[in-house]
Write a structure and sequence with these properties.
The structure holds two protein chains of two kinds. By secondary structure, chain A is α/β, with parallel strands linked by helices. Chain A is 29% helix and 19% strand. In chain A, a hairpin with a 6-residue loop joins strand 3 and strand 4. The chains are: A alpha/beta, B alpha+beta. Chains A and B meet through loops of A and strand 2 of B.
Chain lengths: 742, 163
């Protein structure tokens, strides 16, 4: 990389040798029109819009594919450059329909802008225009391929970023079409980014179609809190409603991309099922009430319970402020019963696996071991960073219950049912320790090692910059703590980093404010301890709790007073709750998200909360005031966030012993589709109509099916059985959008 | 002395009245310019901007495609439009309201319309019986358009050679 100096339009600018003219011009703020060039995609140089005049060249050169060299003199707006830009624009507009008034891209269209600036007022073209029939490509993206100018950004996005080649160019010349290869439509979990990269209105957002024009909306900076990354987004609002969510550039968090879950989940906000008014249960009947009355009932109910019989449960997607205030309220009442780990089969007091790798570092790894995770769907943006590393030659191994469909090649894959995962990882650890000639702890002495484990251990120890990722499927495993400990040990023995992706959403905020029992009851124990008062913060037990039936039974007891702070109506919650306080959902409240890099990202409310609902932090503050607890003198959410962020986690943790635990012959791994992972996405209709969103199958191997006496198409816990050999023996892998059943 | 005598002659000679009656007599025999509104109407330029109307194509299809350019260009924010995907997949309005109290009859909506859907007719004599009456909705606008389509078409045809 040599620093060179070139001249663009008479300005001396600096660049690196080999850097394209357009990227230097972009950095210097010199405007060069372009369609096919995108800073995050490879250079195609097929639109020819960025032609510039380079002195010494008889013909104009494309700025995107011409490398800068020292002393180069470039003109972007002399006669020659202008003439070529005008000519290219005329060619591009030959087949582009003049339907800007009905096009959703109208007003934010690169073609429109560039045509205004560089195009001609009249066209010489009088012949018929090309028309392309549209194939539907799914519930998220609307196609109008007649508008396509063949820049191939979507094709390159699919091949280079999403990692699934779905769109392609077929035919030649006049017959050239951009279309999906398969008729099933787009399946990528990042597909929505194609809408952002499309410079024209060929690919637009389907849920947004024809509703609002781009100039009517205001863009509000926000943060998506569905996953551990906290992708930066703009929420675009109109008349107090979120109409669209688009990506906001932040190189250190989400680069330019966001996942479909972050992009389309906003649809849930407008769902009819929102909780809009406070309600109280009077003699078994629900009555709408004013906030004063509802809060009064809630307060007196909580006051009736003794300190030790009060419990608080919160959603993992709650904001830092909500989690902080709820834990302060709970601890103020003298209780230590609080938890967010509702979906964990065996929540314990062991410390969670530490994450010591940053998103940027993930791109530079040379090996990743993925344990118990379908990372592509669980954490799309983290998976995207790992995929970027694989493009640079990194290898990936997996220890999973099922062979998942990753968007990169898996070098070593071990199928391991939950009950065998401890043994599998022990084997890997044993090989690593033996290779380092370290002493073996007792629990490894009797462990047998097979070739697959040796392979994984060998690549791990050979790698200089490896990471071990633990995913959310570990939560179904009663031995989750032991798995986490083994992952730590393996990372230590192989000098690797670790990444804990087992708990998603705003879990790190919960860790930050110690939203965990410090000597009290955890999520599992609370449902067996006959507590007398509960506060549930956006908790929907049918989906969220690992044993939903037991949880609902326990909450339905006559002597259990339940205050539910809900953003959505839910039948189960209505059945057991005594007071419902409607709270704001995503984008309706100010808050803070702490991401995997430990960066606290605060955001304001994009729109007012629906109906009579109020932001959760306000409700909790007033509830604490009514309970006469000291220390809740907050007037805005940044004050709460400041207090919360000044805390350091303060929960006593216990050591984990790796011992053989009693495990069933056949274990179940339960995983929700990414679009059933939280309450907002479950209510986003378009996401539910995608292929990923509609998955509902219990995969089981033939031998295991025999043990369980299941045949193809039977229902296992309410989910249709699919028998094939992609899944580990002794394990049923349930991937579904349906609520948990016993 | 002389001045006084002159004034006396003028006053008692009814000279002003005679001058006035002279004009009256003259007007009695000239052509009248008064128009007996509403039986009679003055001629109107084809560009006259009166009450709004929404037009249809000859086959009955609404012209408006909900592009909202009129809403965007309206300097008085008098237009409110809501749109959706219609049953046949086209872009259609679900609501098209014009507040005639806000409207300043500048004609920008008409100029902005890519499909000549919103037009200003030659109707200028209308009244509201209630406050809400000032807001005309989509049905009202379409009804005005249907009723006056011939006149609207004629005015546009006449004006077309000057555009």
């Amino acid at each position: 990389m040599v620093d060179i100096e070139i001249e663009i339009d008479g300005n001396l600018v600096h660049g690196h040798s080999g850097e394209s003219i357009i990227s230097i011009a972009d950095r210097e703020g010199i405007d060069i029109p372009r369609f096919c060039y995108h800073k995050k995609l490879s250079v195609a140089a097929n639109c020819r819009m960025c032609l510039v005049d380079v002195e010494g060249n008889p013909k104009p050169q494309p700025a995107c594919s011409t490398p800068a060299s020292a002393g180069m003199r470039v003109h972007t707006n002399n006669e020659k450059a202008k003439a070529s830009q005008k000519a290219v624009m005329e060619f591009l507009l030959i087949n582009h329909p003049l339907d800007c008034p009905i096009c959703d891209q109208g007003g934010e269209c690169e073609l429109q802008d560039v045509a205004m600036e560089y195009g001609s007022d009249v066209s010489k073209f009088n012949e018929g225009k090309r028309i392309v029939a549209d194939k539907g490509i799914g519930a998220l993206i609307q196609t109008d391929m007649t508008r396509c100018i063949h820049c191939t950004r979507c094709v390159r996005f699919g091949a280079e970023v999403a990692g699934i080649v779905e769109m392609g160019a077929t035919g030649r010349g006049e017959e050239l079409k951009i279309e999906p290869f398969l008729s099933e439509g787009i399946q990528s979990e990042l597909s929505g980014n194609m809408i952002d990269v499309c410079p024209v209105g060929a690919l637009t957002s389907k849920p947004f179609r024809y509703e609002v024009r781009s100039w009517q909306m205001s863009s509000v900076e926000s943060v998506a809190r569905h996953d551990l990354v906290g992708s930066n987004v703009f929420t675009q609002t109109h008349k107090g409603k979120v109409k669209r969510v688009v990506a906001r550039d932040n190189e250190s968090v989400n680069e330019t991309w966001i996942s479909d879950r972050d992009r389309f989940s906003y649809e849930g906000l407008a769902n009819d099922n929102r909780a809009l008014t406070p309600k109280i249960k009077v003699k078994g009947e629900w009555q709408e009430a004013s906030w004063e009355v509802a809060l009064e009932v809630a307060t007196s109910g909580i006051k009736n319970a003794t300190e030790a019989s009060f419990g608080a449960l919160a959603s993992k997607n709650a904001t830092l402020e909500e989690l902080y205030l709820l834990q302060k309220l709970t601890r103020g009442l003298g209780s230590e019963n609080l938890d967010t780990r509702l979906d964990v089969a065996n929540p314990s007091s062991a410390s969670a696996l530490e994450t010591n790798v940053s998103l940027a570092e993930l791109e530079a790894i040379d090996h990743a071991l993925i344990v118990n995770s379908y990372l592509r769907l669980e954490q799309p943006m983290i998976n995207h960073r790992i995929r970027k590393a694989t493009l640079q030659g990194a290898k990936v191994s997996t220890v999973n219950a099922k062979a998942f469909d990753f968007n990169y090649r898996i070098a070593n894959s071990v199928l391991s049912a939950p009950q065998n995962t401890v043994a599998t990882l022990s084997g890997v650890l044993k090989v690593l320790l033996e290779a380092n000639s370290q002493a073996l702890p007792d629990y490894l002495k009797g462990v047998k090692v097979d070739q697959a484990q040796i392979d994984i251990a060998n690549v791990l120890s050979a790698a200089e910059n490896a990471v071990v990722v633990l995913g959310e499927q570990v939560n179904s495993n009663p031995c989750a703590d032991q798995v986490a400990k083994l992952v730590t040990q393996i990372a230590k023995a192989s000098n690797s980093k670790t990444l804990n992706a087992s708990a998603t959403g705003n879990t790190l905020a919960a860790e930050k404010v110690s939203f965990k029992p410090n000597g009290g009851l955890n999520a599992g124990q609370m449902f067996t301890a006959n507590l007398n008062a509960f506060v549930l913060l956006d908790v929907y037990p049918t989906f969220d709790c690992v044993d939903s039936v037991a949880a609902i039974e326990n909450l339905s007891r006559d002597d259990a007073f339940v205050v539910a702070l809900n953003s959505f109506e839910d039948e189960a919650v209505l059945s057991f709750a005594d007071v419902i306080l409607p709270v704001a959902s995503f984008y309706e409240t100010s808050g803070t998200h702490i991401n995997i890099d430990n960066v606290a990202q605060s955001y304001g409310a994009s729109v007012k909360a629906a109906g009579d609902s109020k932001p959760g932090w306000k409700v909790l503050k007033v509830l604490a005031d009514l309970l006469e607890l000291p220390g809740f003198d907050y007037t805005d959410s940044p004050q709460v966030a400041d207090d919360a962020l000044s805390l350091s986690p303060n929960v006593a943790t216990s050591e984990v012993d790796i011992i053989a635990m009693e495990v069933p012959n056949v274990a179940t791994v339960w995983q929700y589709t990414p679009y059933a992972s939280d309450v907002l996405t479950r209510h986003a209709q378009s996401l539910q109509q995608t292929q990923i969103g509609q998955v509902s199958e219990a995969t089981v191997s033939e031998a295991t099916a025999k043990i369980l006496e299941l045949s193809q198409g039977d229902l296992y816990k309410g989910v249709p059985v699919n028998i094939n050999e992609t899944v580990a023996e002794g394990c049923v892998f349930v991937h579904t959008n349906q609520a948990r059943q016993r | 002395m002389f001045k006084k005598a002159k004034k006396l002659v003028k006053d008692f000679g009814l000279s002003e009245i005679r001058a006035g009656m002279k004009i009256t007599a003259k007007q009695l025999v000239t052509d009248k310019i008064t128009v007996q509104f509403p039986e009679e109407r003055t001629p109107i330029s084809p560009r006259f901007r009166g009450l709004h109307a929404l037009r249809r194509y000859p086959n009955g299809e609404e012209r408006c495609i909900a592009c909202k350019l009129c809403e965007a260009v309206c300097p008085a924010n008098a237009i409110t439009i809501e749109s959706e995907v219609s049953d046949d997949g086209t872009r259609r309005t679900t609501q098209y309201d014009i507040d005639l109290f806000k409207c300043i009859f500048c004609g920008f909506c008409e100029e902005a319309c890519p499909v000549d859907a919103i037009v200003e007719t030659h109707i200028f004599d209308y009244a509201f019986e209630s406050r809400e009456g000032s807001i005309i909705d989509k049905e009202g606008l379409l009804a005005i358009g249907d009723e006056n389509e011939k006149a609207i078409n004629k005015a546009r045809l006449e004006d077309s050679k000057y555009r």
